[in-house]
């Protein structure tokens, strides 16, 4: 804490505001991540106990599987095209 206090004490007001804003942004991200994890754990426990609906929202439908397959093929075509276009001539 002392090191952080000394660091902030030597900054001007604008920089202190920037550092504090970044700390708040980081705290918000940590809180959101923790909340999502707790929510997922709660839902998982409900599913295991059988307190949830019969059909789960997170199950993949046939449309989802087809969309994932198409995205995978498009990505593979893009990677193949980029490999052909980008030539490594660093050692030439």
Q: Give the termini separation.
A: 53 Å
Number of helices: 3
For the largest beta-sheet, the strand count, sense and barrel status come to:
none
Total strands: the figure is 0
What gyration radius follows from the Cα positions, in whole Å? 25 Å
Question: Mean of the pLDDT scores?
Answer: 85
Tell me the strand percentage band: under 5%
Number of domains: 1
**Broad structural category:** mainly alpha
Q: Write the element-wise H/E pattern from the N-terminal end onward.
A: HHH
Helix content: over 70%
Which blocks of ≥5 consecutive residues have pLDDT under 50? none
Please describe what this structure looks like.
With 92 residues, the chain is an all-alpha fold. It has one domain. The protein is 75% helix and 0% strand. It is built from three helices and no strands. It has helices at 2-9, 13-49, 62-85. The longest helix is centred in the middle third of the chain and has 37 residues, at 13-49. It is flat, with a radius of gyration of 25 Å. 0% of the residues are buried. The mean pLDDT is 85.
Features:
3 helices, mainly alpha, 92 residues
Please describe the topology of this protein.
Layout lengths: L1 H8 L3 H37 L12 H24 L7
Task: Compose a concise summary of this entry.
With 92 residues, the protein is an all-alpha fold.
